Amino acid sequence: MVRNGSVTKVSFMNNSQFRSNFHKFINKNQLLNKGDKVLAAVSGGVDSTLMLHLLSEECGEYGIELSVIHFNHQLRGEEAERDAKFVEELASELSVPFYLEKLNVKRETKKLGTSIQDAAHILRRNAYAEFVAKYNFTKVATAHHRDDQLETLLMRLIGGAGPIGMSGISIKEGYYIRPLLFCDRSQIEEYAKSQKIDWVEDSSNRKDEYTRNRLRNEVIPILKELNPSAAEVASRSARTFEQLSEELQKFSKNIFEKSLVSEKKSEIILAIPPMSNYFKLIGYYVINNALKRIEKESPTVLSRQFDDILELVKTGDTGMEISLSNGFKVLKDRSNIVIYKDSVFSEEIPLQIGDSVQFGDIILETSISGWKKNSKLPKGNDHEVVDHRLISGSPLKIRSWKDGDKFQPLGFNGTKNISDLLTEKKIGLNRKRKISVLECGDDIIWVCGIRLSDKYKVSERTKEVVHLKIKSINLN
Known about the structure:
The protein is built from 16 helices and 22 strands. By secondary structure, the chain is of the alpha+beta class. The chain folds into 3 domains: 15-143 and 179-228, HUPs (Rossmann fold, 3-Layer(aba) Sandwich), CATH 3.40.50; 245-341, Uridine Diphospho-n-acetylenolpyruvylglucosamine Reductase, domain 3 (2-Layer Sandwich), CATH 3.30.465; 348-472, Phenylalanyl-trna Synthetase, Chain B, domain 3 (Phenylalanyl-tRNA Synthetase, Chain B, domain 3, 3-Layer(bba) Sandwich), CATH 3.50.40. The strands form 5 sheets. The protein has a 6-stranded mixed β-sheet with strand order 3-2-1-4-6-5, with helices on both faces. β2 (65-72), α4 and β3 form a beta-alpha-beta unit.
C-alpha cells in the first residue's frame, strides 16, 4: 500500500483549482444528473481511488446513489487479493456498496485468441452491461485521464486505426462517464498526496512486456520532455476527431439505409452501388455502422482492413472474403457485400429420432409415423421422409457441409459433390455457407432443405417413416 504522509506542492494546479475543475468538467459535459445510480470501477490505483473519493463527496450535491465494482482478473495471485481487500475496506469506510467480480481472463484469452489485455477489456465490458441491466445503474464511471488518452491515441496510431479509432476515449459514451479526463496523472497523484489519500500499486504496470506499458514508461516521458502539455494536446485532438466522426456518422447512416438489403441478428447485406457512389471515408463509416448493428462491442475497422474491403468492393470476384477480427467477415456476393459474424456452432450435433435440435439458424425436428403404399409424400424442401428401417440403430448427426462432401441425390444414379449440387441449384454464396447436412453413420441422408439422398427414400417395403422437418429461426 502507498501511504502518503507529506503534502506536496501541486505542479499544474492548486487543490482548490483541482476541485473546481472537477466540478466544471462534470457540469459542462453533463456527466451526472440528479437521481443517477452510479457504478464506479475501482482498481485500487491512485486514479480510480481518487475518483471514488471525489464522487462519494459529491453524492449529496448531485443527488446520486454510488456503488463500487472491483475486478479480480486472477492474474496476480496474492497481490490481486490485496487489491480487492483494499477496495472493499475503502468502500466500507465511505459507506458505499461494494461488488467483487472475479474474471477468468486466461480462459477468455485462449477462447478468443486475443491478448490478455483485450480479453480483460471484453470481460469487464460484459460485466458492466450485466450490472447495468440487473441493478438499474444509469452510469458507469471509469477513471481514465489525459495520460490514458495519449496512450490510447499512440496505441491506435501505431496499430493502424482509422478516423473512428483516433477519436480516442470519449468523455461520455452511452452509460460510461470519465470524470477525470480533464487532468493528467501527475495532477491526480499530487492531489491525492495533498489529501493524504492511500492507494495500492499494480506491479504489472511497471513491466514493459505490454505495449501500453512501454508507451507509458518509455515513450510518453520523452514526449512530455518535448512538450509538457502533450497529454492536454492529445485530448484536444481526440475531441476534434470525435466531433468530426459524429458528423460523418450522421451522414453515413443515410447511406447505410440506402444500401441495406437485409438485416439479421448476425448478418447484414449491403448493396454495393449506393455505398460505392460516395467517397472512401463515408464507406468506412458505413462498414463500421454495420458492425455495430450486429454487435455493439464489435471492433473498429483498421485503415488497412478498410483498404482491403474497398478493393474487394471494387475489383474482387464473387466469393472472395475478408476476415476482420472477433469472428467478423466480409463476403462479396455478386453486387452485394455480406457482413457477418461467424456463429460458433459445434462441429456436429448428435441426435436421436424424436429429437428437435437447433443448428445455426435452423431447427431440425424428427418424428416417426406409420406408412402405407398410398401415403402422400410431403411437399416442399423443408419436409422429407426416409425409410425408418434404413436408419434404425445407426447414429444420426447434423453438421455444416464442407468441400469434398458427396452423396447420391434423389433420382440420381451416381454420387455428386454437394458443392456442384448447390451451384446447379443457383444457391447464393451467402446461403451456401449456412447449409447443413444430416448424416447416418458416415453417409449423408439429406442436404437440409435442398435434396434427399436416393438411398433412404421410401419404397413398397416401407412400413414406418422418419419425418425430417426444418424451420428457419427468425433472428431479426
